Amino acid sequence: MKFRKENGPKRGLMSRLQPALLGAGTLLSPVLARAAYDVNIAQPASSISSQIYDLHMYILYVCAAIFVIVFALMFYSIFKFRRSNGAKPDVNFHESTLIEVIWTVIPFVILLFMAIPATKTVLDMKDTSNPDLTIKVTGYQWGWRYDYASEDMGFYSNLSTPWAQIGQPGEKATEEKGKDYLLEVDNPLVVPVGKRVRLLITSNDVIHGWYVPQLGVNQYGIPGFIKDVWFKADRVGTFKGQCSQICGKLHGYMPITVVVKSEADYAKWVAEAKTKWAISTPSAPVATAAVAIEAPEPGKTLTLADLKSAGEKVYAANCVACHQANGKGMPPNFPALSGSKVVLGSVDAQLDILLNGRPGTAMAAFARLSDYEIAAVMTYTKNSWDNSVGKAVQPDDVKAKRKS
């Protein structure tokens, strides 16, 4: 396209834009005054997240350079060939094969220089060979289970922020929110520093997402499939994340915490963890969503008072969000347990729902809980609020139901 000049009144571009710029500056000044400067992705804490961070910054700089060049040429053309300066568009347009080749080749070369490092990073992310440690991660509605196969132990990790800080529907929180509000867990994943950790990620119910940005991990857990991913932390510390896939009502209450320890501290933690969560030890303490309750000796008959006391903790950790602290629930999706025919009815019917869930409703299966936990929470629900069955459910009852 050609331009030619003609005589006419001249008016500077800046003088014409000045009122608009002043108005925009007035509107933006309060926003800029409150702007935060920590807008970049979190600083990396593993080798793979360092690659991701470097790739992010590299592509950001390339895009910024393209932005500056393109807009500089555009504004130069606007300023140089403005109507107030006498320029008029020529009606004759002429094709240029050379220009068309240039503006096709240049973007291709730019994309090539971006694709090469991006491909290398993606391939490195997918290379889970030669791990020093393998951990199976299972997503649940709404929490995580970590199984250390080489150590013969496993435990559940759930939100530990008290409901007094979160509040119930229609009620205000009674406690001030903590520093790590909704990012606190009862039992974090613990790994050694400088070791290649392979995660085998799956799900027990719906699709979840195990996401810890500083470690460079974001992998979906899909029921019936096992996806693997890896990381190698390069420093000791605590790194937090959350479920990255909308998975249900309590999706926002599925935090992830990874604690990276030195080799000596990790070995000490493993020794202590085995005494609590060894899979082959039937009397190991049982982890719930907010507290660990000490399991009794196998075959021991427990009193109603003991079971009800333990069941209150299990209920607060796993059931209160849907069925409420007063047992009134949130009908119709979350029915009341106080006065419920199922709770007041046979042990067998309530056990069937707890172990298998109720298809077509929000009631998920809680078979992941131990026999003791299920017996305790059933005893609590049958003998709390307006319920007074006067009967305790024993762990052996739950065990027998699982086998049937």
Strand content: 15-25%
Mean pLDDT: 83
Helical content (DSSP H or I, runs of 4+):
25-40%
**SSE class:** alpha+beta
How many strand units?
A: 14
Uncertain stretches = 1-15, 17-37, 281-291
Shape field: elongated
Query: What kind of assembly state do the chains in view correspond to?
Result: single chain
> How far from one another are the termini?
83 Å
**Radius of gyration, Cα only, in angstroms?**
30 Å
- Can you summarize the main beta sheet? 5 strands, mixed
| Series of secondary-structure elements, N-terminal to C-terminal | EHHEHEEEHEEEEEEEHEEHHHHHH
Query: How many alpha or pi helices?
Result: 11
Strand order of the largest sheet: 5-4-3-7-10
Overview of the structural elements:
There is one protein chain. The chain is α+β, with helices and mostly antiparallel strands and 404 residues long. It has helices at residues 13-34, 47-80, 97-126, 163-166, 263-277, 304-318, 320-323, 341-344, 347-356, 371-382, 395-403, and strands at residues 3-5, 87-89, 133-140, 143-148, 153-157, 189-192, 197-203, 208-212, 217-221, 227-231, 237-243, 255-261, 286-287, 292-293. The strands form 4 sheets. The protein has a 5-stranded mixed β-sheet. The chain has a 5-stranded mixed β-sheet with strand order 6-12-11-8-9. Helix 2 (47-80) packs antiparallel against helix 3 (97-126) and helix 10 packs across helix 11. The termini are far apart. Mean pLDDT is 83; it is low at 1-15, 17-37 and 281-291.
Which helices and strands, and how do they pair?
Layout: E1 3-5, H1 13-34, H2 47-80, E2 87-89, H3 97-126, E3 133-140, E4 143-148, E5 153-157, H4 163-166, E6 189-192, E7 197-203, E8 208-212, E9 217-221, E10 227-231, E11 237-243, E12 255-261, H5 263-277, E13 286-287, E14 292-293, H6 304-318, H7 320-323, H8 341-344, H9 347-356, H10 371-382, H11 395-403
Parallel strand pairs: 3-7, 6-12
Antiparallel strand pairs: 1-2, 3-4, 4-5, 7-10, 8-9, 8-11, 11-12, 13-14
Helix pairs in contact: 2-3, 6-10, 10-11
